[in-house]
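Assemble and predict.
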Amino acid sequence: MLDILLPQVANGLVLGFIYVLIAVGLSITFGMLGIVNFAHGAFFALGAYFSYELVRLFGWPAVVFAPILVAIVGMVVEVVLIRRLYGKEPLLSLVVTFALGLLIEAVIRYFWGTDGKSLSPPEFLSGFVEIGPVFMTLYRVAVLVATVGVLVALWAFLNFTPYGRIIRAGSRDPEMVDMLGINLPRVFTGVFGLGCAIAAIAGILAGPLWTVSPSMAANAIMPAFVIVAIGGLGSFAGALIAGLTVGVITAITIQFWPQASTAAMYVLMLVVLLLRPRGLLGAQWERFE
Amino acid sequence: MKFGLKTAITRRCLTLLAGVSALGLVATGALAQDAVTLGIVTPKQGPSASIGAHMAQGALLAVELHGGKVLDRPVETVWLDEASPQISQQNMQKLADEYKVAGVIGGNSSAATLAMMSVAEREKIPFISAGSAASEVTGANCNRYTFRAQAPAPVQVEVAFNELRGKKVYFFTPAYAFGQDVLRTSRSLLEKYDMTEVGNDEVPVNTADYSSYILKIRKAQPDVVFGALVGLDLSNFMKQWNEMGMKGSIPIYEVAVSDTDFWDIGMAVATGVHVKPWYYKDPQNPEGEQKFVAAYEQKYGVPPSDKAFFGWFSMNAMLDSIEEAGSTEPQKVVPALESWRYTEGKFPYYFRDFDHQLVRPAVIVKLKDTITDQWDYMDVVRWTSETQADTEEVFGSKEQSACTMPAL
């Protein structure tokens, strides 16, 4: 039994880490700005498309520019649209970002068409790792390492840098931060861009695994929302635990009951929310209460 | 209230404007009445969006090549989305209520087709499903207004099984009507072809990551994987199959595949032996189909997929039948479709009157070992049948059909 379970758990962890990366961006946008961003999946897809173009034109090293480009798009969107939603009814941000997601997907279809695009892993990551019963491709190991790296860097940025402290303070008490002379709108623009950049990194990593297509936005957004709901809105650690749990449970369900594999995460969410409506590590946020 | 000269002029002007507008409306109404409106319902989003676009382009090209007219009246087309069975059904109803269509082409997925064909029957709209393959469409759920172009799943499975005698097989099918039909048929044929099932997975539609499934297949060590994934689902599976080093180790056989499933993932990844309705580079394609290929390439800049072919083929059948009927009345168009013959091929292809299934051979294709052309990925191994008698035998007889065709 262990030789069946171990490979699936290892595989589920990789899938879970990709989900975590998508969900963390979503969690940051909500936690810091109070915006439930339904367009997050579209930024994830945009990251994959930008990386496809950059790899095609300049080779793999150029993909580092993809999150930057998506962050710029995100910041423009924040200035033009999102900042008008701060402090408004949550339903308004849901509707507007949902429409924004559809718009970005339509733009993707307009420029790249409905056909899928082929993005292969870089040549140097084309091998395999086999340890006992665990079998994994080198690219998936690289995805795991890269995701952990991004998450650690993000955690360090938010906790140990002055910018991170301003962002966290601004999310708790924007008026006080404003009174201290900090340009809060600019900070919020940066936060939204950061959330989009993280979504783009997830898109870049997922591109060589999944076919780059407009529908990948929809494939990403639902697990991300489930993970954020399970982990607790705005909780970084909660998203990490929930993402990995969803990945592993999905993989094990595929082993024993494949028809139920997509439903498994929703059942998990149902159970968690019944027992703990705020999610696993959801804290009380006075600003949004 | 005073009425001066200005007011009088304004009133006259308004009356004149109203008159002109009314005339315009009448004229527009007459034009709209004059046009024959045909509906297209194919996926515009989701895993089959690429397939849907090609199918619609093929249908639109057929209208264009028909001179944009039928019965000497201009043809107008309305293309709506086949996003899900529910949305397809709503869009079919919309085509009936708002656009008063004379016929509909589309229905790529079997589940959507089954949902749409009930509207076709209720609203009396001739409907040609260009992509569905579940048996029910022309079997137990058949109706007088629905026709189907692609070969049903059992026909495709049996011709593929001919190549797989004595093999240990792992079934990998989508968890909806078509996939369940393929699995059911496959299991019923195992003994006949001396095959053994070593595993099976019914996969939810729109699955992005197949690595856990591939680990299961790797562990089961079958001689062959036999599947029926469609669109991006097949593309994602094949991409990850290659990524996990499985390409070349266990052969993949699929039914009802489309060219776009392979074009979407690129030449380094595509693999397998598959049953598909048609291939644009098939040297046996008749002259009319070669002209279609040239026209399609000229218009869209890419070769037509098999789904584009079926869009073109089905729209041609609809236009020809409306011409033959001399009317857009469904009670005249349906009999015309039942007696319509495609005479370009080696032998005539036709919709059988007892179940409305198109009787036409498919092709078995093998992905080239080394692909060098951006579009030409496959070699045609053979046609599934070479003569009319063989083809009719493969499709089964009236007695074997589960369809009880109702009267018009």
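Residues 116 and 211 of chain A are 6 Å apart (CA to CA).
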